[in-house]
Specification:
Strand content: 5-15%
CATH superfamily of the largest domain: Aspartate/ornithine carbamoyltransferase
Number of domains: 2
CATH topology of the largest domain: Rossmann fold
Bound molecules: N-carbamoyl-L-aspartate
Oligomer: single chain
CATH class of the largest domain: Alpha Beta
Distance between the termini: 11 Å
Helix content: 25-40%
Number of helices: 12
Low-confidence stretches: none
Length: about 300
């Protein structure tokens, strides 16, 4: 089996079979990562550039580690300290890097659509590591992998996505993926942080009441308030946000069942998520990070052309 696409630009472009294949391959790589020797030769002689035009800790380390575990050669680009700071265009930067015989590009950019633009202009396989407010497909995949691992299925699962939906590429990739895989999605947050026509556009539910949403769901995926993307005041204060939409231990304890809590990181502790929830056994936040490496290994491998089915 091989993927129906040459690049991973967004979950929007994937088929159900693509998603199932990535999740199944990630299970195999997760097994590899439990071994004393965690390295496989699958991407030996494949060269990958990690192009990060925007801040990142988890995603960048996760891709780098996935590449190393697959024995790929890697180079890293951070915009500060690069010629982009001297005014070089994205396309020039990438063409120069590719002329050094690079096979794959992992890219994070603050402009939505930047990886799609590159995919139309260069021959290398491109993996979107987050583009503006558009998509963050590997996060969507690792979230799905983690939900399936913990709860055994995606089909029919009730997933609440809570917080700053408007500015979140993680929300978009989760919504596309969960819709395709038969899960039920409700988004919850202040009306100013939820796009107006999201219900009509995606066929998902909107609930502005946190307690009701938590009572309904099996999984709560809590998102960071993306202050850096908000150029106007969209809620009164972080303290008030926490009172109305912060996920707190007392709230979770008042529910009739134990739900699973997720967060893509970085967490604003005491804003969208209280510390005693983030660090509780209901939270699978660190498992998400762990699973991210296996999921990225699967994506890199399947798009590398090293998958025998691609040749
Ligand atoms: C997310 C991102 O950068 O989109 N983080 C991540 O990749 N784990 C979410 C965020 O920044 O809030």
């Amino acid at each position: 089996m091989s993927l129906s696409t040459r690049h991973l630009l967004g979950i929007k472009d994937l088929t159900v079979d693509d998603i199932s294949l990535i999740l199944k391959t990630a299970e195999q790589f997760k097994e590899v990562l439990q071994r004393p020797v965690k390295k496989v030769p699958s991407l030996r002689d494949v060269t990958i550039v990690n192009l990060f035009y925007e801040n990142s800790t988890r995603t960048r380390f996760s891709f780098e580690l996935a590449e190393k575990r697959l024995s790929a050669d890697t180079i890293n680009f951070a915009v500060s300290g690069s010629s982009a700071a001297k005014g070089e265009t994205l396309l020039d930067t990438v063409r120069n890097i590719l002329s050094m015989k690079v096979d794959m590009v992992v890219m994070r950019h603050s402009a939505s659509g930047a990886p799609h633009f590159l995919a139309n202009h260069i021959p290398a396989a491109i993996i979107n590591a987050g583009d503006g407010v558009n998509e963050h497909p590997t996060q969507g995949l690792l979230d799905a992998f983690s939900m399936k691992e913990r709860l055994g299925r995606l089909d029919g699962l009730k997933v609440a996505i809570i917080g700053d939906i408007m500015h979140s590429r993680v929300a978009m990739s989760n919504i596309y993926l969960l819709n395709k895989m038969g899960a039920k999605v409700t988004v919850c947050g202040p009306p100013t942080l939820i796009p107006k026509y999201i219900r009509e556009s995606f066929g998902i539910e909107v609930n502005y009441d946190l307690k009701e949403t938590l009572e309904w769901c099996d999984v709560a995926n809590v998102l960071r308030i993306q202050l850096e993307r908000q150029n106007q005041v969209l809620f009164s204060s972080l303290r008030e946000y926490n009172i109305a939409y912060g996920v707190k231990k007392s709230l979770l304890d008042s529910l009739k069942k134990e739900i699973v809590v997720m967060h893509p990181g970085p967490i604003n502790r005491g804003v969208e998520l209280d510390s005693d929830v983030a660090d509780s056994k209901q939270s699978i936040i660190l498992q998400q990070v762990e699973n991210g490496v296996a999921v990225r290994m699967a994506v890199l491998y399947l798009l590398s052309g090293r998958n025998p089915a691609n040749n």
